[in-house]
Each structure stands twice: as C-alpha cells, then as structure tokens.
Write a structure and sequence with these properties.
The complex is a heterodimer of chains A (194) and B (186). Chain A is an all-alpha fold. Chain A contains 9 helices and no strands. Chain B has 2 domains: 92 residues, Orthogonal Bundle (Rna Polymerase Sigma Factor, Chain: A); 87 residues, Arc Repressor Mutant, subunit A (Orthogonal Bundle). Chain B contains 9 helices and no strands. The two termini of chain B are 24 Å apart. The chains are: A mainly alpha (194), B mainly alpha (186). Chains A and B meet through helix 1, helix 3 and helix 4 of A and helix 2, helix 3, helix 5, helix 6 and helix 8 of B.
C-alpha cells in the first residue's frame, strides 16, 4: 500500500487532512481505482455502522436530571470573590512578616543614627548626600523619624511604638492562626462505645 | 465528512462557572445538554440501555465531584465523555459486560453474500460486532463513528496520543470489515 495513500486514506475519509497532504490524496484518488474502492468501503462501513440505532426507551430528560440531582453531594456555595478572598487569606502571614521586617529595619537604622548623632558622628554625612535645596526638609524629616523611632525619642512615643507595633503584629498573627485552626475540618473521635 | 465542532458558547461557560461554585440547577442544565450523548456513548460500549443509564448517571455524579478542578481549556463535552468512557470501562472490567463475546454471531464466510438480513436483524448484527471489539478500540470507534469527534477530540477525551487514536481506529475498522463482510458485500 506504500505506493498508494493507504496510510492517509482513513484520515481523508474522516476529514482530518489539510493542505498539501489533502491535495496529494485527492490527486491520487483521481487516478487510482484501488484507493477509490478502498475509500468507498470505508464509507460503506460508516453507513452500515449507523444502522445500529442509538439507545431507545430512555428515561425522560427531566427525570434523568432529577435522578442525578438526588445523588449530588452538596457543595457549599462559593462565589468567585469568596474564592479569591480565601486565596488572599493565606497571604496575611506573608504581609505581617514583611511589615515586621520593615519595622525592625527602620528601628535599627533610626537607633543607629541616633546613637551616632549623640556621639557627633556622621552629622553631616546624610545631609551632604542630599541636594542642597532639600537640606532643610531632609533634616526635619530625619529629626522626626529619629524622634519617633529612636531610642532617645520623646518620652512614651518612641518606646511605645517600639513595643506596641511588634506586639500588634504578633497579635494579628495569633488571631490569623486561631482563625486558620478553627476553619480546619476536624475528624470526629469516638471512645469506641456504640 | 468533517466532524461537527460544538462551540463552547457563553451560556455553557456561564453554566460551568455557576456549577463550579456549587449551583446544582446550573449543573442540571449541563446534564440535560449532554445526557443523550453520554448515554449513547456508554450504550454503544456496553450494549445495555438500562446499564447505560446507570453508568451515565454515575458519570455525571463523578463530573460534579471533579467539576471544581475542571479547566475549560478542552470542551466540556470531551471532558464528560472522558468520564463516561472511563466509567463504562470500569463497569465492563468488573464483569458486568452484558454481551458474551464468544456468543457473538459473527459473519460466516460459508454463508457468503447471499445472507441478507433485514431491519432489526442487521442492526443487532452490527451492534454485536461493535461489542465484540476490544474496549480500547471500541471506545475510539464509538466516539468517531457515532459521536463524530475529531481525532484531536478523541485524543483529549481518552487521554491518548493522536497516533494511537489512528491506529486503534484502523484496527477497529479492519476488524469490523472482517466481521461484517457478509453485510458489506451484500
């Protein structure tokens, strides 16, 4: 059959050929009686197979659908926004960790700057790095940050922020952990008595 | 000769999304859409209408259970047919095959083309011949000849390469031609 198009005849019969291959088979069929007969046999087989009727005496569509419905396990209705919320729920610890890291970094840098300023070190270092016209603004901002987060800030505020913010982050994380624990499905244990 | 392409229209997509969110009514609509096709696929594979309905029902229940993981990359029809053919195979492998292949009255060469069966007898003869095929090639033949799926769709539905689809189809057709030679030559 290699000289013929036997390998591709079924694909041609099933409408699966395109482009050059399709044209090659068509051209071959025009001059090859054997392959044309083969194609006719395929068509005859398809026609004969269609004599096998489809399933009859079926349950009515509504009744069938109702029967299927009876066996469907109930799935909690979950809208798409709720699914998105569930997805972002697991990002909360990541956010908290990022916030804590940021806060610690700011406190360490501010503390270091404060100590350095007390000892008169690097007083002009940051200011010299800034553009001249922003010198005053930068000085004001750095002073404010140092007051808030620095070790020697005004009484109560700096110390409170140093303690309260990490504590708040810790509390939010614990609350998230509790929420996660509550939402987990639990296996029922029995003592074995029926 | 080209197999019909069923567009996964907007309405169907909406029904699928709603069903994925747990809406039973939307899933009921999908069941109504594909009920006949699924029952027929199973019927052609197992040859028993009642069994076909039961297996189709089981296939839809499985579809409901796995629906949240369904990605509408492939048409829903192919996905449901996949579940249906797998369910049919499971049932047939469990020994619930309703047709004893050894008793299938295949074409007798001695009878020659003179044998002329008519109407229901011909249909029954064809049905038995289809049922006598091995499961793997039977499912490919059913999806191609009766459901009009393309090679790619069959490949998706049965999770086999297109080359395997072609070879199984070729095997099934050759076997059918041998078995039904009496009717084909008549």
């Amino acid at each position: 059959m290699n000289k013929h198009v036997g390998d591709w005849l079924e694909a041609y019969h099933d409408g699966e050929l395109r482009g050059l291959r399709f044209m090659q088979v068509e051209a071959h069929l025009e001059k090859c009686r054997k392959c044309t007969e083969e194609l006719e046999k395929l068509s005859s087989l398809s026609a004969l197979l269609q004599e096998n009727p489809s399933a009859s005496h079926l349950t009515t569509p509504d009744r069938f659908a109702a029967r299927v419905g009876l066996y469907l396990l109930r799935r909690p209705h979950q809208s798409s926004w709720l699914r998105r919320l569930r997805g972002s729920w697991y990002l909360v610890p990541v956010g908290l960790l990022s916030a804590w890291t940021f806060l610690q970094t700011v406190m360490i840098v501010a503390g270091g700057m404060n100590v350095a300023r007390r000892f008169g070190l690097g007083e002009d270092l940051f200011i010299s790095l800034m553009p001249a016209q922003q010198e005053g603004i930068i000085t004001d901002i750095s002073q404010f940050v140092l007051d808030i987060f620095g070790i020697g800030g005004s009484f109560g505020l700096g110390v409170s922020l140093n303690l309260l913010l990490p504590a708040a982050i810790g509390l939010i994380y614990l609350a998230w952990l509790a929420g996660w624990w509550v939402s987990q499905p639990r296996q029922q244990f029995t003592n074995g008595n029926s | 000769m080209r197999s019909p392409i069923i567009p996964s229209d907007e309405v169907e997509l909406d029904l699928i999304v709603q069903a994925q969110e747990g809406n039973r009514e939307a899933f009921g609509e999908l069941v109504l859409r594909y009920r006949k096709g699924v029952i027929n696929v199973v019927y052609r594979m197992c040859g028993d209408v009642n069994l076909a309905e039961d297996v189709a029902q089981e296939a839809f229940i499985k579809a409901w259970e796995h629906l949240p993981s369904y990605q509408p990359k492939a048409p829903f029809r192919n996905w449901v047919y996949r579940i249906a053919t797998n369910s049919a195979r499971d049932v047939l492998r469990q020994g619930k095959e309703t047709v004893n292949v050894d008793e299938v009255p295949l074409s007798n060469p001695d009878e020659g083309p003179e044998v002329k069966l008519v109407g229901k007898e011909r249909a029954e003869f064809v049905r038995q011949a289809v049922l006598s095929l091995p499961l793997a090639s039977r499912s490919v033949l059913v999806l191609r000849e009766y459901e009009g799926l393309s090679y790619r769709e069959i490949s998706e539905a049965l999770d086999i390469p297109i080359g395997t689809v072609m070879s199984r189809l070729n095997y099934a057709r050759n076997a059918m031609r041998k078995m039904l030679s009496g009717l084909l030559e008549a």
